Amino acid sequence: MTQIKDFVSRFQTRISLDENLIVKRRDRYFLLNDSLKRLISKDFFYAGTYLGKTKRGKFFPSFNLLRMIAGKKANKVIVDKKTEWLFICGRDIFQKGIMKVMGSKRKGDYTLILNQYDECLGFGKILFNLDKAKDGVVIENISDIGDFLRREKQHC
Amino acid sequence: MSGKEFFVTRYEKLGWRYEDVKPRQAIRINSVNAKVVFIKRLQSLGIKLEKIPFLRNGYWIQKSKFSVGATSEYLLGLYSIQEAAAQIPATLFTKLKDKVVLDDCAAPGGKTVQIADLMRNTGAIIALDIKRRRLIALSNHLERCHVKNTIAYYMDARRVSRLKMKFDRILLDVPCSGNFVTDKNWFKKRTIKDVERNARLQREILTEAAKVLKNDGEIVYATCSLEPEENELNIDWAIKSLKLKVEKINCYGEKALTSVFGKKLDSSIEHCRRIWPGQTQGFFVCKLKKCVCAQ
Question: How far apart are alpha carbons B118 and B123 in whole angstroms?
Fold first, then answer.
C-alpha cells in the first residue's frame, strides 16, 4: 500500500484507496468493491481493478491506476496525434509534440501522458525542464498502453 | 469419419447447402468507456464501418488502412474485436445489473468484457478458465477494457460447485469443435470422434452449471460448432436429464433443428437459434432455465 501511495505522490497528487478493499495476490495488488469482497476466495487469479505489481521492491503501476491518477489534479502533458502514436509504440516525447503541460515542468518528475481526448496513454519522466525551449527528447517513456500489444505477442 | 465430404454431406442432411464463407472482422463498442460520438472518431481515422443490424453495439469493418487491433482507441479499451455471432450470447440475458454471473469458459475474455459492459460494472462476474496462459490473456483484456466487477479463477468449469456459490446468470460458451469459417484447416483436422468427445465434455459442464444455477436463474449456452451433437442433441439431453427448459429468444439465426438424422427431439428446441455460415461464422445459441418441476 505504501508503495502505491509513494508512486502516486510522484505525480504531485493523492488518491484515496480503501485499504480494506485492497487485496494482494503474490506480487500483484487489486482493488475490490464490496460485492467482490464478499465473494472472493483466496486462490483467485485476477479480481476487481488491477492496481499494479511489485518486482524486486519496485512498484509497476497498472493502466487502471494511471487512469485513476489522471482523474485528479496531477502532473500531465497533452500530446498531439503524431506523438500519441509514437508514444504508444514505445518512443520518448519531443517538446514539439507537447500541446499542453499541467502540473510540474521540473526535470526528474513523473508526468502522465494524455491524448487530445484527455485519455491516459501512459507515463514518463521529465528529462529537461519543460519551461525551457529544447530540441530533442524531453520526456522519457516509462510505460505506455502499447504494452497490451507487446504482452499479446509475448503470450502468443 | 472425417474430411470435407463427410461433414458437407452431414450439413446437407441437416438442410444447409455448403458454401465457402470468408470471416468478416467485427468490433463491439464498449459503451461504458466510449462516448456517443465514438463512431465518428473511428471513421475519422479512416476505418469504414457497417452497423451490424442485429446487434446494438456491433459493427463490421468494411475497410481499414491499418489493423484495428493496434489503434490507441483499441488499446484504451473503447472497443473490442469480436466476431458478430459471438456478440449474441451475452445480449440474451435479462436484467444483468447487480447480478452474480458465472462465465464458465471465459478466456480470452471477449464475452466477459461484454457482460461487464452490459452490467455497467455492477454486481459480480466469476470468470473461470482451465488454462493459465489463457487467463493471462483474460486479465490483460479486463485491464485494457477497465472491467472492475470480475474475479477470475484458474478452475475447471466441471468443478465450479467447489466455490460454494449460486449464480443468477451463467454463460456457457463451451469448448467446441469450431467451424470451417474461422479455421481454414478445419475439415482436415476434425473427425466425428472429436465432435463426440467435445459433446461429452459439454454435457459435464452443463451438469455442473445446472447445480450452481439459482432457481430463477438463466443459462445461455453457446457453441461455434455446426455439429448437432454439440448443439440440439445436447440441449435435448439437458431437457431430459437436467430438467432444464428452453426459453424463447429473439435474436439473429434460424430456428434450431427438432429432428436430427431421423431422431425426433423435444419440440421446444426450435426456440434455440442455429446460425449457418453466411453473414457470420457458424453458431448455435439458446437460453435455458430450471423447470418449475425441478425446483
Answer: 11
A83 and A135, same structural domain?
yes
Q: What single DSSP character describes residue B85?
A: G
Contact B138 A63 (CB under 8 A): no
Is B151 in contact with A48 (Cβ distance < 8 A)? Answer: yes
Contact criterion met (CB < 8 Å) for B152 and A146: no
**Residue B216: which of B171, B287, B249, B168 has the closest Cα?**
B168
ipTM tops 0.90: yes
Contacts of A48 in chain B (CB under 8 A): 148-151
Q: What integer pLDDT is reported at residue B293 of this predicted model?
A: 62
Residue A49 sits in the same domain as residue A116: no
Does residue B228 sit within a domain? Answer: yes
Domain that holds residue B107: 84-294
Res. A18: pLDDT tops 70 = yes
**Active site (catalytic) residues of B:** 224
Q: Of B75, B124, B154, which is closest to A145 when you measure between CB atoms?
A: B75
A44, A45, A49 member nearest B148 (Cβ): A49
Q: Say if residue A79 is in the same domain as residue A53.
A: no
Q: CB burial class (10 A; 0-12, 13-18, 19+) of residue B18?
A: middle
Q: Which residue of A has its CA nearest to B98?
A: A35
Containing structural domain, residue A92:
75-152
Q: What is the pLDDT of residue B35?
A: 79
Q: State the average pLDDT over residues A32-37.
A: 94
Q: What is the pLDDT of residues B223-239, one digit of tens each?
A: 999 999 999 999 999 99
Cβ atoms < 10 Å from Cβ of B66: 10
Mean pLDDT of A103-117: 96
Per-residue pLDDT of B273-289, as tens digits, reads 999 999 999 999 999 99
Q: What is the pTM of this model?
A: 0.95
User: Is residue A115 located within the same domain as residue A139?
Assistant: yes
